[in-house]
Amino acid sequence: MHTEMHERYKWAIALLNIQADDQVLEIGCGTGIMAEQIAMRLRSGRLHAIDKSPAQIQKAITRNQKYIQSGKAVFNTMALEAMDEAERFDKITAFNVNVFLKPNPPALRLIRQMLKVNG
Fold this sequence. Notes:
Oligomer: single chain
Distance between the termini: 28 Å
C-alpha cells in the first residue's frame, strides 16, 4: 500500500464485504485508494473504476498497475452516464463523491439497473 489509509476507507471496504468473484463498479475512483483495496480482495472477480478526471484516473492507474496487468482492474475516464447499461455488477460504490453530486434521478436509476439482483 502506498500510504496509510484513513479509517473511513477501512470502514467502507469492510461494509462492501468484497468477495473473490465480485464484479465491482467504483464511481469516482479518484487516485485509486479504494480501488486498490477492492482489487487486492478479488481473485476471479473484476473491478471497473471510473472517474471524470483524466488526472485522477492517471494516478489511479499508476497506483494499481499490478491489478490492471493481472486483469483484476480496469480504469476509465468517463462519467457514469457513459457506462454501458447492459453491464451488471455485484457491488457498486461511490465513496467520497457526494460533494460533487447533485440530485440526479437518472444516475440513480442507471445504478439500480446495473446492480445485479441481491447486489
